[in-house]
């Protein structure tokens, strides 16, 4: 599975990519973590780590950190995008500006592409209304209820990228979790865990207003922290 972070605001892209990598490593501390930069890039690194039997079962998380700063990766990486996304290992690709071949490949094959900067904002404004109408935010609530961390994160990113504010998403999730507490009908969480999730949502909401946390990143960490 491949997640791509890129754009003109490289520090913001890096922050988001690191947040995902750290959350995945916390979720699976037994995973082998490999970070690849331009100086030690080789297409063989990807080719040797795409195999596996199931999500996380072979315990590899690969962070490709701006590898296209060297010429070899610019040529070979577009051809590796599809097999990375089809892998049961996790690949995280961080880049600044994508060249035409790489952009075409990630838009076609990557599980999720997160772009920062003015270009992404303009794209959002053009499709904002349609994205908000098409997105079923309650599918996120269902994913959280089923305790599917990666699905929850993926739908959450769709919601944010379509222009929905983190605060409105917090409201939907809080409603869902409180309903689950009242119904006592889930086998995926204990009552204690549900109460903790509700508390976490309230904390993220208030701390973001105080400037103590970034609500968007706080919610991402929460989504990826869901585990049985």
Could you explain the architecture of this structure?
It is a single chain. By secondary structure, the protein is of the alpha/beta class. The protein has 2 domains: 2-116, Rossmann fold (3-Layer(aba) Sandwich); 123-224, Up-down Bundle (Zinc Finger, Delta Prime, domain 3). The protein is built from 11 helices and 5 strands. It has helices spanning 10-27, 43-47, 71-76, 81-86, 100-109, 118-134, 138-145, 149-161, 166-183, 191-209, 215-224, and strands spanning 2-7, 32-37, 60-65, 90-94, 112-116. It has a 5-stranded parallel beta sheet with strand order 2-3-4-1-5, sandwiched between helices. It is elongated and about 55 Å long. Mean pLDDT is 82; it is low at 53-57 and 120-134.
Main attributes of the structure:
5 strands; 2 domains; alpha/beta; Rossmann fold; 57% helix; 12% strand; Zinc Finger, Delta Prime, domain 3; five-stranded parallel β-sheet; 228 residues
Distance between the termini: 21 Å
User: What portion of the residues fall into strands of 2 or more residues?
Assistant: 5-15%
Most strands sheet: 5 strands, parallel
The CATH superfamily of the largest domain is P-loop containing nucleotide triphosphate hydrolases
Report Rg: 18 Å
The geometry reads as: elongated
CATH topology of the largest domain: Rossmann fold
* Helix content bin: 55-70%
CATH architecture of the largest domain: 3-Layer(aba) Sandwich
- Cross-sheet strand order for the largest sheet: 2-3-4-1-5
Task: Specify the number of helices.
Answer: 11
Number of domains: 2
Kindly report the average pLDDT value.
82
What string, H for helix and E for strand, traces the elements in order? Answer: EHEHEHHEHEHHHHHH
Please report the total strand number as a whole number: 5
CATH level-1 class of the largest domain: Alpha Beta
- Ranges with pLDDT <50 over ≥5 residues? 53-57, 120-134
Task: Look at the helices and sheets and give the structural class.
Answer: alpha/beta
């Amino acid at each position: 599975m491949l997640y791509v972070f890129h754009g003109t605001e490289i520090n913001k892209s890096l922050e988001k990519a690191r947040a995902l990598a750290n959350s995945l490593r916390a979720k699976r501390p037994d995973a082998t973590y490999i970070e690849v930069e331009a100086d030690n890039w080789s297409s063989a690194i990807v080719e040797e780590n795409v195999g596996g039997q199931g999500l996380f079962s072979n315990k590899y998380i690969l962070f490709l950190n701006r590898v296209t700063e060297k010429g070899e990766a610019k040529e070979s990486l577009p051809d590796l995008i599809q097999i990375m996304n089809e892998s049961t290992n996790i690949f995280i690709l961080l880049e600044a500006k994508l060249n035409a071949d790489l952009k075409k490949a990630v838009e076609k094959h990557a599980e999720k592409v997160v772009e920062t900067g003015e270009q992404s904002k303009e794209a959002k404004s053009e499709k904002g209304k349609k994205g908000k109408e098409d997105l079923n935010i309650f599918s996120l609530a269902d994913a959280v209820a089923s305790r599917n961390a990666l699905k929850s994160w993926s739908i959450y990113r769709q919601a944010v990228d379509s222009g929905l504010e983190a605060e409105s998403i917090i409201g939907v999730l809080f409603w869902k979790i409180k309903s689950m507490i009242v119904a006592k009908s889930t086998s995926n969480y204990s009552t204690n865990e549900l109460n903790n999730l509700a508390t976490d949502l309230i904390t993220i909401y208030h701390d973001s207003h105080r400037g103590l946390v970034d609500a968007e990143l706080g919610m991402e960490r929460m989504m990826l922290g869901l585990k049985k």
